[in-house]
Amino acid sequence: MKDTTKHQGLRNQLANVLEAKGINDEKVLKAIRKIPRHLFMDSSFEAHAYQDKAFPIAAEQTISQPYTVAFQSQVLEVKPGDKVLEIGTGSGYQTAVLLELGAEVFSIERQHELFKKTSMFLPKLGYKPKRFIFGDGYKGLPEEAPFDKIIVTAGAPYVPKALLGQIKVGGRLLIPVGDKEQVMTLFIRKSPKEFEKHELGGFRFVPMLKKKN
Q1: How crowded is the C-beta side of 73, counted as CA atoms within 13 Å?
Q2: 73 among known catalytic residues
Q3: pLDDT value, residue 159
């Protein structure tokens, strides 16, 4: 599959749609304009790639709605050089956005089929996280902690304590919490024991799965 001027035009339109919905971080919009989202999807869905919708990918997972990806990226306030842990690599689209924002990304996926596919696919597009990990996102990545930012891209029934413990003071954890519908929840670590919590509205994600396959 190619990336053409037509695709570029569709990306520009998508970025305009997201801007109209309240995404105002210019670096995030620039990433949306640059990343060929159609390549992250089955070619039969290519016509839908630049609509603001979620779509199915392998292993009964989805590629998140562009607005959700842009919203999470904006709320995280990623700065170049930030060490970011991503829970739920999925298609790798959110991973690519984080890399475009200059983050050092460690990404965990527990669906083996997706892990294999995405960890081979992303580098072909020039997106190279620090590490791809096949494992349990609920445990985080203690050997690489602490992180500046942690982003969870699946619905968690509760907030894993391990993840809260792996954020730097001043760092952020962004996680959708809930069963069928989730509340996007931001935790900012104010001190070793103190967190500031913000609830940022309702979203729908596939569930965050425990253990490996």
Answers
A1: 32
A2: no
A3: 94
